[in-house]
Design brief:
Blueprint (H helix, E strand, L loop, with lengths): L2 H8 L2 E2 L5 E7 L3 E2 L12 E2 L2 E8 L4 E5 L3 E9 L2 E6 L5 E6 L10 E4 L4 E6 L5 E9 L8 E2 L2 H7 L4 H6 L3
Antiparallel strand pairs: 1-2, 2-5, 3-4, 5-12, 6-11, 6-13, 7-10, 7-12, 8-9, 8-11
Length: about 160
């Protein structure tokens, strides 16, 4: 299996944060704005899901969304997910299939946390999925500014600057 095979097989498209993606599920049912926390500006699908592919040398830039995002490992090498928690601590999660080395098959990034990802150094690529609830909407997506985020979290400046566009 190669990245180009996955891109062609699943019709993956370039993602604004880096990598390739394809939305493969969007619930037909929606949640009205009155049912959602105040941070949402309108109604949202109950849930959405995508395929996501990152090749070695590429990364998903630091960004945040207004919903929880559950990451699922499918194929390839481990994906490192960098999450800046609300308390300022940075966690690095290895999403993969080597549980003896501490890889996780799934991990939930909490709503409003800044996060980025890249394939582990020994991974040619990582093929994963992301499920978002309430469903993803680009209106809820914010790409980080490297200088602003580094000023807010100076002890993570090196990681932030390496994972921003």
């Amino acid at each position: 299996m190669t990245p180009s095979l996955l891109i062609n097989k699943f019709g993956l498209l370039p993602h604004p944060e880096g990598g390739w993606y394809k939305e493969n599920y969007r619930s037909k049912e929606r949640l009205d704005k009155t049912m959602l926390p105040e941070r949402f500006n309108g109604s949202r699908s109950i849930s959405t899901a995508i395929y996501f592919l990152l090749e070695q040398g590429n990364f998903s830039a630091f960004h945040r969304i207004k919903s929880d995002e559950c990451w699922h490992f499918y194929f390839g090498g481990p994906l490192l997910i960098y999450i800046i928690q609300d308390n300022g601590r940075m966690d690095i999660i290895s999403l993969g299939n080597n549980i003896e080395k501490g890889d996780l098959f799934q991990y939930v990034v909490p709503a409003n946390c800044w996060f980025a990802s890249k394939p582990a150094n020994d991974a040619l690529y990582s093929f994963v999925g992301c499920t978002v609830a309430p469903g993803f909407d680009f209106e809820d997506f914010e790409l980080a500014n490297a200088n602003d985020l580094s000023n807010t979290y100076p002890k993570h400046a090196a990681a932030i600057k390496s994972l921003c566009r």
